[in-house]
Amino acid sequence: MAILPGATLGILGGGQLGRMFAMAAKRMGYRVVVLDPSEDSPCGQIADYVLQASYTDEKALGELAALSDVLTYEFENVDAAAVEFLESLGKPVHPSSRVLRITQDRILEKTFARNRGIPVTAFAPVGTVSELESAMLKVGFPAYLKTSRGGYDGKGQVRIENAEEGRKAFAEFSGRDLILERRVPFEKEMSIVASRADGGAFVAYPPSENIHVRNILDISIYPARVAETTLDAARKIARAVAEGLGIVGTFCVELFVLADGSLLLNEIAPRPHNSGHATIDACLCSQFEQQVRAVCGLPLGSTELLRCAAMINLVGTGEGDRLLGLEELLRHPDVALHLYGKMRAPRGRKMGHFTVLADAADAAERRARELQKILQWV
Ligand code: AMP
After folding, report:
1. pLDDT tens across 282-294, in order?
2. What range defines the domain where residue 200 resides?
3. Hey, which of 6, 149, 182, 216 has its CA 20 to 30 A from 111?
4. Which of 40, 75, 93 is the last residue in one of the domains?
């Protein structure tokens, strides 16, 4: 049975993804309750009810479940045990704890993909010194040694060129579960945001092209400028992931595009994704509204791109908390600005984004790059 407007949606995690989910939910007439450890979280500023507590606080999780008709989470580093606990209380949680367990662990995630016939780079789990040695022989160089769990925006990963660097990096990670991955000589990075409903209905947005700076997403361009066959392959991978995991909700698959146009799966995010933010302004139904619809059992919305788009992340530099150039940015009629209500802008923190709409992807990217230059943290 569908969970209709007026009901309360519970969310674990109060960052910007939770905030934009809450905004979509509220626009559709739902109430929102968020659990987050921090005071004044981006989602807490929007939600109807805020529980400030740790993700492992069972009393707070119980309150969250009691207040909610359905629950979701906004990032994959929440404790899977917390989601299992919510499920044990009998409240629906989407995506399920099983999906979370697989997608928050790079080894389980890549093993899942490989077993479903989805291509991934060569990889091997590394728990001990002898596993490291055999992994380096199997995977080869250059490679990345990454923590299997808990990494994001390039945190918890080291690029290694040879066995000596591998041993050094292994010693520095001391005691954590690791994965060694062969570096992919990609031409482009691309991602596809899609949603699956409980009954199996599936929709996917057009894939976007993503460029990272210092491992943090800098710009996403819609649609990706790749061959039609590559776009089709991305849709097939997204569908295989959705069906293989039995996911309910919005998710994202990050992909590497090789020189011949073929794809390798990099990561699965079981939630709306930074590279999908342009869907707020460029589509009738954003990735966040799609998430609301999927978790509530409503029909999924349109994923049609109404205009081409480029989204630029506004990332803190540590030089100050005030963004200079906003007024000049807002003079441009094709720009939509989104700020996340964060008061401090340390280096690397995602503070907001803006989206530029245009009639072609090239023009959107060009304009976005011009406008990016006028903004500065002071
Ligand atoms: P991840 O957190 O695994 O998505 O890594 C962050 C970024 O690091 C990716 O978006 C890539 O730009 C780069 N990266 C990570 N793993 C690889 C790999 N195996 N080959 C090439 N680039 C990678």
Report:
1. 999 999 999 999 9
2. 188-377
3. 216
4. 93
